[in-house]
Amino acid sequence: MPSHAYLVKDNNELVSHCPCPQAQIAYPPQADCPWCGCGWLFSCIDCRKAFTFARGVQVSEPWEELGRRDLRAMFEKEPNDDDVDEWVEFMKRFLAEVEVGKQYVVFDGRLIPTDKVRLDFDGWHATHQLDFVPQVAALKDKAILATLLSNVNYWESHALGDSTPSALGLPTVRDRETKWWKFWK
Ligand SMILES: [Zn+2]
Ligand SMILES: [Zn+2]
User: Fold this and answer.
1) Ligand 2 is an ion; residues with CB less than 5 A from it
2) What is the whole-number distance in angstroms between the Cα of residue 34 and the centre of ligand 2?
């Protein structure tokens, strides 16, 4: 059976509202308010709730079926083939670097290995230059939740203007942001 790398919840540390023992990630639900958590938490493909830390695993479920399952849960109806194709194209790119056994967080549209020491990139919403991975640092220093991750001022003072997925070459994602985003809260 062919298989490929995917991400599942690694633990319930920092922020986790997902009770599922085996939680695969859903399509990253980031909207225009990354500070609410949509810009720095994963969500569970089954219960749709948020968690912080994920781990690379090998799965045998084909991309199309994962996408169909995620979209069905998101829209509460059978998705059309275009939606599934778009999901697959995005997720393959999003997860391209995933290594089995390695731990990751999501931060502003970027998948970040938790052992990374320095962040220097333009995300979907803002530019980031940090000497730590914020979710990892927040495990030791909870203040980082309030001063950075959930802080509107941090995100807005570093904002890039129109840096939504569409501005970064993901045109079809934009139209669905609002629609998909509704399922987050
Ligand atoms: Zn769950
Ligand atoms: Zn948000």
Assistant:
1) 31, 33, 36, 38
2) 4
Whole-number Å distance, alpha carbon 90 to ligand 1 midpoint, is 21
pLDDT digits (tens), the chain, 185 positions: 789 999 999 999 999 999 999 999 999 888 888 999 999 999 999 999 999 999 999 999 999 999 999 999 988 889 999 999 999 999 999 999 999 999 999 999 999 999 999 999 999 899 999 999 999 999 999 999 999 999 999 999 999 876 555 555 554 444 444 444 443 43
* Strand (E) or helix (H) holding 74: helix 63-75
Distance from Cα 74 to the centre of ligand 2, integer Å: 16
Alpha-carbon distances of 134 from 48, 130, 137, 146, rounded to whole Å: 23, 8, 5, 11
- Nearest ligand to the CA of 38 is 2
Q: What is the pTM of this model?
A: 0.87
Task: Report how far ligand 1's centroid is from the alpha carbon of 49 (Å).
Answer: 6
Can you tell me the distance from the alpha carbon of 29 to that of 101, in angstroms, rounded to the nearest whole number? 24
